[in-house]
Amino acid sequence: MFAPSVIDFTNYADADYAINFTKNIQPATAIKVVKTWLNGWATSARMHEEVVLPCLFGCSGKTDDLIHYLQCPHLYALCNYFFKADSCPLIRIGFRNPTIHNLKLTACVFTAYHVLKAQIRNGHLDGMQKDTRTIHAAWSVFANALEAEAGEHRISYTVFSLPKFISFLVNGHDHDPSSLTHQVINFPGSQEPNSSVPTVPIHIQPLHHVVQMASCRGLGGQVLTPQPPGGESGRGVYLSIFMIKVVP
Question: What domain count does the chain have?
Fold first, then answer.
């Protein structure tokens, strides 16, 4: 799922711990999280639909597939705009160093994606992403659903504005919820990452840049290590339910 990167379960991701940690959230929320870990989104690629849609968030040359969405720069930018999302996909989906906050965010994104997909399936949106207007409409539908889910889970978030998000995305603005130009919905007691740090600058690559998946770094080094083109290196085994390589 994380190709072309390799995940070291021994030092950086503990599957047993992550699964046990889901006991700290509501069962309905946990199901959405585990479905995300197990490639359980109802994407057109996974469901073998007659027409496999392109990325619903507007990435050129990419398909409607969770393998892409874990690394999708537009989806990451939306999450970062709303919640100060971590750049590491493993942390972002709560599989490495899980927190209640990140698990809830994963469940929110799961629901918002399926709301967007339902709008396309019902003919209310064009899923072929033929022009900028269609892409912006998809962003807005996803954002509205994400706001509703965040409110349901009592997660603080930045209120979505399409012009402000486009500026945030294109110009690579820092995510600063304290800015007077952004309205922030706060819930008392809601868990937020880095809450002890007043300002956490996180940069978004401009659209014209080639965006590669950010590496996750821990005390021991790099977690996601790109495989060399043309084949695999080293020995490893495959954990079939996660569709990722486990390095011994």
Answer: 1
